Amino acid sequence: MSQTAPATASQRRPKVLLICGSLNQTTQMHQIAQELPEADHAYTPYYGHGYIEALRRARCLEFTVLGYKLRRRCLDYLERHGLPVDPHGAAGGYDLVLTCSDLIVPRNIRRRPVVLVQEGILDPAGLPFHLCRSLKVLPLWLAGTATTGLSGRYHRFCVASEGYRDLFIANGAPAERIVVTGIPNFDDCRKYERNDFPHRHFVLVCSSDARETFKLDNRRKFIARCLAVAAGRQLIFKLHPNENAERARREIAALAPGALVYATGCAEEMIANCDVLITQYSSTVFVGVALGKEVHSYNDLAEVRRLLPQQNRSAARNIAAVCRELLQVEESALAAASAVSAASAAPLPATRVARVGRERWTAALPRFVTPSRLAPTRRSKASLFGRTRLR
């Protein structure tokens, strides 16, 4: 009766865990996985451990990607596309982990090869950023995405552009681990010009979730500024996915009654159709700049142009290549470890066994016949406290 030979390390399909988050982060991870058809994939919403997980369960983190609202959107996307889900990577046994953020690095992936993928634009580097960088005891998430890359708990960090590589190195990220690949969703902004969004030639406002994440945001002043820029043209607001949509609609209706408001939809396609883009702190500014729109932003536009993600149309493919490199290194290490284990377990020839045994016994014999070993043991006073000295 024939038996199937067990799969070797080279034949076994690698297992890859993809840690998602916001819809932008989730779609990025999906695109990367599609470029790794030789691997078995599993996805999970963003997660933490210890007190972070306790706070999440208590619904104290609803303003973050850990919250139930954004977690549900992530899971809805994964279910809609029929993607395998392993919540919190509980199944284990992964050969590689991709994550959209290193502000929290779960304990159960810290011994695995990790690839960190930049999501988009960073939060401004204010006082919390400088405190977190100086005081290592502070958690990175206190400063928001400004501290991205500073955990050091990854093997490779895939970033959007050479400008961002320089920025992350200046912030303190290890230069030797950073790879410029471009980032999915922002590597081909021209594709968004092919859309069926019904409006054209308007002023688009991409608002932020600043208030939901406990940052200052004078919304009344901001809407007044938008009206001034629009100067009578059609004004359309695209709300941030994490924003309190009901409150935002109420404010816009009171201050800009002629404006249209969208809580859902593709912001990038709306940007492609607009004449003017107004943003606060948002990655959508990259799309506006890449498409040559008139842009008004809280971000320094000269800095945005320096940091603009590479328009290489191949970010997911480039990141997949980085993953393959790490998987190959991991496979080689496992093969070397197996070879060493097999060599150490192999039986020695009989004549060599006898010689090695005789040599070991001859070397060990003096320890058992020395007079100091045969003399009675006297304990010092220190033995009263559990410590025994031989004299």
Structure at a glance:
With about 400 residues, this protein is α/β, with parallel strands linked by helices. The chain is built from 13 helices and eleven strands.
Account of the protein in words:
By secondary structure, the chain is an alpha/beta fold. The chain has two domains: 15-187 and 310-329, 3-Deoxy-D-manno-octulosonic-acid transferase, N-terminal domain (Rossmann fold), CATH 3.40.50; 189-307, Rossmann fold (3-Layer(aba) Sandwich), CATH 3.40.50.2000. Helix content is 38%, strand content 11%. It has helices at 23-34, 51-57, 68-80, 127-134, 162-171, 219-230, 245-255, 267-273, 284-290, 301-307, 315-345, 350-369, 371-374; strands spanning 15-19, 40-44, 96-99, 114-117, 156-159, 178-180, 203-206, 235-238, 260-262, 276-279, 294-296. Strands 2-1-3-4-5-6 form a six-stranded parallel beta sheet. A five-stranded parallel beta sheet has the order 9-8-7-10-11. α1 crosses α11.
Outline the secondary-structure elements.
Elements: E1 15-19, H1 23-34, E2 40-44, H2 51-57, H3 68-80, E3 96-99, E4 114-117, H4 127-134, E5 156-159, H5 162-171, E6 178-180, E7 203-206, H6 219-230, E8 235-238, H7 245-255, E9 260-262, H8 267-273, E10 276-279, H9 284-290, E11 294-296, H10 301-307, H11 315-345, H12 350-369, H13 371-374
Helix pairs in contact: 1-11
Notable traits:
13 helices; 11% strand; disordered C terminus; 391 residues; Rossmann fold; six-stranded parallel β-sheet; 11 strands; five-stranded parallel β-sheet; 2 domains; disordered N terminus; alpha/beta; elongated
